[in-house]
Specification:
Layout: H1 2-17, E1 24-31, E2 39-45, E3 51-58, E4 63-68, E5 74-80, E6 87-91, E7 94-101, E8 109-111, H2 114-141, H3 147-174, H4 179-191, H5 196-205, H6 208-211, H7 214-234, E9 246-248, E10 254-256, H8 257-260, E11 264-270, H9 275-291, E12 296-302, H10 307-317, E13 322-324, H11 333-337, E14 345-349, E15 355-358, H12 362-373
Parallel strand pairs: 1-7, 11-12, 12-13
Antiparallel strand pairs: 1-4, 2-3, 2-5, 5-6, 7-8, 9-10, 11-14, 14-15
Helix pairs in contact: 2-3, 3-4, 9-12
């Protein structure tokens, strides 16, 4: 009987010491005067980058606890009522500790699991470099018109910016098992500080666990979209046969590319709202008037949102050639067919429908048309 009681007491002790062995426990300690019952929120990033509540708890004697189950590592955020800012924490199974001053949640110390230790490693260095940037900015403000000093400080800031860029890239390369590396890669893609052709190689180094995170899956989707775009791009490379299409004309009639072609055909993507397009229109008009009788045709493909704007711009700019549009902005099926995601864009076709040039402007357009027709 004594052995049974002893075994039971050992089991109870083990359970008490490890309340959530297969999930995560966040134990937070807040310094400063925090009333018992103060709400603490665990939130994640929802649609439109708005915070969404995940869990809520209360402060008792300066402490709070969250308990749950984690899947793939994910960044979430701890908010405290009546306290500014928030603390980032990587949700993963294990025991996570947060220590913070109630008025400085952004400077909290987070530790206890692999991902949070890596996150803290990055944040510590990033905060130190942020202080360095602030110091340079303060020196600039106190330069008081000293141009020589300002010039030196600008150079110092440029060097610092390059150093920070290198720091983030080096962190990604050294820590392919870190969720923060995925977030830094995503940031690099958005700010174009990491070249598009490098993204796949970096992504491939991430560990299987990290690739399961929602942030990594987002990058995987972007990479797949780029592959699709590249494949589509081959269809409109110089030397390829231009994709054929039939689309509504100004009066609603269906117009086919094959029926609008000349010895040379310019397929011109534009819109009434596009200022660079409107600025280029007089040049296209001049080239068309000079070479139309010799075999040049133009087919305008509008990416307008409103038919009335499209038709008015045709009249105002004197565009006397054939026009088509689905009035669907960049969702126009012809734009998608030609992989057009920015305008103006133009494709010059020979009499066989082969793309011989792309995006020619001004004198370059006239020179190429003259070459083809002569």
């Amino acid at each position: 009987m004594k052995k049974v009681i002893l075994s039971l007491s050992i089991l109870i002790t083990l359970i008490a010491c490890n309340q959530n062995p297969e999930g995560f426990t966040i134990e937070g300690t807040l310094t400063g005067e925090v009333e018992n019952g103060t709400k603490v929120y665990l939130k994640k990033q929802g649609e439109n980058n708005q915070p969404v509540d995940v869990d809520t708890t209360e402060v008792k004697d300066g402490k709070f606890v969250f308990i749950g189950q984690a899947g793939a590592p994910e960044i979430q955020y701890v908010f405290v009522d009546n306290s500014p800012g928030y603390t980032g924490v990587v949700i993963e199974n294990g025991e996570i500790e947060i220590t913070a001053q109630k008025d400085s949640l952004g400077l909290a110390k987070v530790k206890g699991t692999v991902q949070n230790d890596l996150f803290s490693k990055y944040v510590t260095k990033a905060q130190a470099m942020s202080r360095q940037a602030v110091a340079i900015q303060n020196d600039m403000q106190s330069a008081n018109g000293d141009e020589a000093k300002m010039s030196a400080l600008r150079e110092e800031m440029q060097d610092f910016q390059q150093e920070y860029k290198s720091f983030e890239r080096d962190f990604i390369d050294a820590n392919p098992n870190a969720l923060i590396s995925v977030l830094l890669l995503d940031k690099g893609i958005a700010t174009r500080t990491i070249k598009a052709e490098e993204v796949q190689g970096i992504y491939d180094t991430f560990t299987p666990e990290i690739k399961e995170s929602s942030a990594a899956k987002k990058i995987a989707e972007q990479l797949e979209a780029l592959k699709v775009k590249a494949e589509k791009g081959k269809a409109t490379e110089i030397g390829a046969i231009a994709p054929t299409f039939t689309a509504p004309g100004v009066d609603g009639e269906q117009l086919a590319l094959k029926d609008m072609m000349g010895k040379v055909t310019l397929v011109d993507f534009w819109a009434a709202w596009c200022r660079p397009c409107r600025a280029e229109n007089p040049n296209v008009v001049a080239v068309y008037q000079k070479y139309h009788d010799k075999g040049l045709n133009v087919v305008g493909v509008s990416l307008d949102r409103k038919a009335e704007d499209w038709k008015k711009a045709i009249q105002d700019d004197g565009l006397t050639w054939n026009h088509v549009s689905h009035i669907q902005y960049f969702n126009d099926p012809i734009a998608k067919m030609y992989n057009v995601d920015a305008i103006p864009a133009a494709f010059l076709l020979d009499e066989n429908g082969v793309i011989v040039a792309k995006n020619l402007r001004g004198p370059a357009l006239e020179a190429k048309v003259a070459e083809l027709l002569n």
